[in-house]
Amino acid sequence: MNTKAYFGNFGGQFVPETAMFALNELENAYNTIGQSKEFRDELADLLKNYVGRPTPLYHATRLSKHYGHEIYLKREDLNHTGAHKINNALAQALLAKKMGKKKIIAETGAGQHGVATATAAALLDLECDVYMGEVDIARQELNAFRMRLLGANLISISDGLKTLKEATTAAIQAWVNEIENIFYVIGSAVGPHPYPNMVRDFQSIIGKEAKAQLKEQNLKADYVIACVGGGSNAIGIFNEFLGDDTKLIGVEAGGLGTHTPYHAATLTCGRAGIIHGMKTIVLQDKYGMINEVHSISAGLDYPGVGPQHANLWEEGRVKYEAITDDECVQALTLVSRLEGIIPAIESSHALAYLEKLCPSLTEKSVILVNVSGRGDKDMNTIMNYEKGKIYG
Ligand SMILES: *Cc1c(COP(=O)(O)O)cnc(C)c1O
Fold this sequence. Notes:
Strand content: 15-25%
Bound molecules: pyridoxal-5'-phosphate
Radius of gyration: 19 Å
Number of helices: 17
Shape: globular
Helix content: 40-55%
């Protein structure tokens, strides 16, 4: 057993034998090319001059006054393409290029990871296929158009429910069929080893910057809050604080409520299982069939979670909570009105947790919230929500 592939009881490499070759090749490349000074310098330069890092740490004064605690926002929404996903997509695409791969592929649900990957492919002159469910292409017309405009081939998947799960299965199949030429860019801290480690490392710049930015002001975070879909923005900001006494809170999508079947609160309601090449906590029925999930936020709508989160949950190091669609929209509106910042609906789940946390605190606290992305992409969803059509 490859013990490095595990976080406690979770992780591993549950893939067909043919894919093991590619995973070993990737692990080698990541441990050599990925750790080289040349790669690190080139990536740092792109993150600075192309993505726009470091992102600001913003003291949200009106929100702080509203809640009676010092609230700081890590502004991943100000990254090029509007979210933290570019940190990882660009790094993986650069690694693919250095490995001599000509083509990168990606799966996407809402299209955010597809757009980030298509962007990196354009920049680095790589061919790019994006697998997306037919239903998602219709729902996310604008992102589908964006990917095509950036020069990616959008591959429409019409199996099953025609959404992310089927698109992921199709991408894995395409990868296994042409494993020598293709680099599979995974969009969250999920999948078989070494992806969860690699994605965490690429996203950990969020927490490194935030901790240093707090330190410059002689501050220390008492709490760090982030939303959890697959878990990449959360592990990205948590990683730097794992060894401290900072309390860490991951917020999952509670959808219409965890007492209903319409949610994506994996760690709140799931149990151990296997999904997309990893052992983790999975939302499943009593026969082990993976559940359909619901959230107003397409980016959190995933029935699994990264294996490191499953481990941090089991160890009790990170607390995981669920926020409903309604609570999320209230937070999005509040932060828009108080701060002039429209957060992504995913990030609004993290912000919504302030409403629960703040009244319970007896001492004045410093709370760091990761604003993983901007809400521009969500305006149709919010308009439809307000009309009572939350599935829009
Ligand atoms: C995709 C996405 C997420 C969820 O993905 P994680 O891997 O859990 O971070 C959160 N926020 C935004 C803005 C996203 O686009």
